[in-house]
Amino acid sequence: MLKVAHIIVEEEFYISQDPSQAAGILRIFFQDCFVQGCDASLLLERPEGSERSATSDLNSLRATSVRIINEIKASLEVACPGVVSCADTLALAARDSIFMVGGPWIPILTGRKDSIVAASNQTVMASVPVATLGFSELKRLFASKGLSVKDLVALSGAHTIGQTHCGLAVSQLTPTMSRDLSPAFGANLSQICLAYHPAARKSHLTVHLDSLTPDSFDNAYFKNVLKKQAIFHSDAALLDDNEGLSYVRSFALSQAQFFKQFHLSFLKMSQIGVLTNVEGEVRMSCGLAN
Ligand code: HEM
Predict the structure, then answer these.
(1) Which of 68, 80, 177, 221 has the largest CB neighbor count within 10 A?
(2) Would you say residue 253 has pLDDT above 80?
(3) Closest Cα to atom 24, ligand 1: which residue?
(4) Residue 216: left (phi > 0), alpha (psi -120 to 50), or beta?
(5) Which stretch of 2-11, 137-146, 263-272 has the lowest confidence by average pLDDT?
(6) Short-list 74, 89, 84, 66, CA closest to 8
(7) Which structural domains are found in the chain, ordered by start?
(8) Tens digits of per-residue pLDDT, 211-248?
(9) Which parts of the sequence bind Ca(2+) 1 (predicted)?
(10) Residues 33/106, Cβ–Cβ less than 8 Å
(11) 156 CB under 6 A from ligand 1?
(12) Binding site membership: which residues?
């Protein structure tokens, strides 16, 4: 109980200061689970750079959110040394983040152990979905993690919070505007992300993934996808399949349906490739194996 209270109080402080950190923490958890399982391997520092630097999409993970996880873990080590793994710290922090910005409360299991090694860059690149993927590639990648099309669509709903760097959005804008975007939405995005001359792309700038309610975990993402107001090709691609389309429609119509399915899908995701007992360790510091 003490452990959980520590995590919640400290995290509440950070998220009340900057609600967008909820998105940063959730995305780190998703990427960690997809690379070699929910084992906090993404937090390990390697001489050649962490898993986070293996792809340009991952390189955009928020350093500030990684710091928050490390600080929560450091407090846990003071309160009860060697008990709560970094993998559980991250999973609980992601679960709490969702709730703190208005999403469903998801009771998750604990007992994850931490990996001793990080994945190779090759494994990272094969495991992490990038924004240019089409429906069949997304379906295949999620299936390889034991996740269905329903899970893919529900979990993509996490793009109802947070932001993207313009650098990851420009492929939708140049050389020609993608048909994934409505003309008005695309024009607005171009105004923010492209300078007057295309050579001066403002790749360091960020834009909200859901421009109307960026810090609120709601079902706006699905309405955005249907209106062609979601930024990535991987978002629009959910409409390219009848099953995907039917889930997008149903979650756009009912936030309750979305929350119910997100709950189930998040639980599944939080158990991907989990290490238990002697399969892993409880790291003292999330960046370093013991
Ligand atoms: C379906 C495949 C997915 C792709 C291709 C994808 C790709 C991306 C990209 C490119 C960004 C912007 C990164 C940046 O510029 O900083 C992003 C942001 C984000 N993604 Fe995804 N994502 C996917 C699924 C998911 C899932 C399953 C979750 C969580 C359950 C998730 C949670 C987030 C969040 C919360 C953000 C905002 C991060 C922030 O504001 O720091 N994504 N995603």
Answers:
(1) 221
(2) yes
(3) 156
(4) beta
(5) 2-11
(6) 89
(7) 2-128+270-279 (1.10.520.10), 135-267 (1.10.420.10)
(8) 999 999 999 999 999 999 999 999 999 999 999 999 99
(9) 32, 35, 37, 39, 41, 51
(10) no
(11) yes
(12) 32, 35, 37, 39, 41, 51, 129, 159-160, 210, 213, 218
Quote the tokens at residue 211.
């421009």
Q: Is the CB of 158 under 6 A from ligand 1?
A: yes
Long-range contacts of 47-50 (CB under 8 A, 24+ apart): 48/121, 50/118, 50/287
Please give the share of the chain, as a percent, with pLDDT higher than 90: 78
The token pair that represents 141 in the structure block: 């990648």
> Tokens 């505007």 appear where?
177
For residue 5, pLDDT over 90 is answered with no
- Cα separation, 230 vs 172, whole angstroms: 11
Cα separation, 16 vs 159, in Å, equals: 20
> How many whole angstroms separate alpha carbon 35 and alpha carbon 38?
8
**Cα distance between residue 283 and residue 288, in whole Å:** 7
Please tell me the predicted confidence (pLDDT) of residue 202.
62
User: How many Cα neighbours within 13 Å face the side chain of 276?
Assistant: 7
Helix 63-79 vs helix 21-34: angle between axes, to the nearest 10 degrees?
80
User: Which 3 state secondary structure label does DSSP give 224?
Assistant: helix
Residue 111 to residues 5, 44, 53, 194, 246, Cα–Cα distance (Å): 17, 19, 28, 46, 36
Q: How far is CA 93 from CA 14, 26, 72, 204, in A?
A: 11, 8, 9, 27
